[in-house]
Amino acid sequence: MRPFTMNVVQDMREQNILALEHAKRDNRKVVGMYCAFAPQELALAAGAIPVSLCGTRHEPIAAAEKILPRNLCPLVKSSFGFAITDTCPYFRFSDFIVAETTCDGKKKMFELLREYKPIHMMHLPQGTDRPAAVAWWLKELEILKERLEENLGVEITRQNLREAIKLCNRERLVMKRLHEMNRLDPAPLAGLDMLTAIWMKGFNVDKEDGINLINQLIGEIEEIAASGQSPFQPGAPRVLLTGCPVGIGSEKVVRLVEECGGAVVCFESCSGIKTMENLADEDEDKDPLAAIAECYLKIPCSVMTPNPGRFELLGRLISDYQVDGVIDLTWQACHTYIIEDVNVRNYVKDSFGISSIQLETDYSNSDLEQLKTRISAFIEMISGR
Predict the structure, then answer these.
(1) Could you give the CA distance from residue 60 to residue 76 in angstroms, rounded to a whole number?
(2) Would you list the domain boundaries of the chain?
């Protein structure tokens, strides 16, 4: 049984485009963001609408490859292709872009993107294990605040920041609660539906409406779970997907896992639960910018070195979601994630005695049969666990 609310969730992107058009007519500002490290709270405190711009589709890549090298991450090429072909309404409506130095490909791509939109680049620290890291990131947030105020013609007050923190925390909590519904066995929500619901939050023009919609979806899922129904066959092996971010348009691995009889019950990546784990401190006595800086710097991304937080999170998720196997997905040319896979495989095997598989691919369908063969063999192998 599939929740009826998923039909509404699926249509959210198109509905939000219309809402964004109305917002622009009312002179609302829009801030585009490409990464989980970009702090939505600052855009909200500026009275702007934060939207996700990360490219997850194959179609614009051909146009991007006329300028960018072919041997580059598909996420970078897709993002750039959408911008230069003017085929992403969210990019078109954006008045200001927040970029970040998460990887070399993205930060150099952003240099080219400056020709199309005003962009501010946030410089991430390379690791979080040094005391200076938080101070560094806090300074970056202070600079971003000044740039937003200058470009959008507003003042970002401490009170507005505190209100934005509370709103974003509420969104994180409801999205985490949704994700955790699949801790149940059997899982009551298909992995593709879970991914769709999580991914669409990046396009919400009104976060309150988005929160209410997810609460409605959770209510339906609870009824499905109470009746013992599930979209999966009894005994379907439970799979955790980790690695590079996945979105609608780049979900082929999720589809293949579930077509081959597996149940994707957990998304560890930054398009999944990774960004829902930590809340910003709401203490009225704390500097709200510092609270935001500390919250975002806890995201355990592979661009950080060392990156122990990823393994701490993986361990909890494997236990909490009763995982039978782990799939580590890497987009081609994503060096940080492909190198970190060695440690992921060893950690999963040594700490939990379960199997994992590493898949390196792009956004195209050229390797579907090869992927299906490997995934099918993996699902069969973990089925008897």
Answers:
(1) 11
(2) 5-156, 160-382
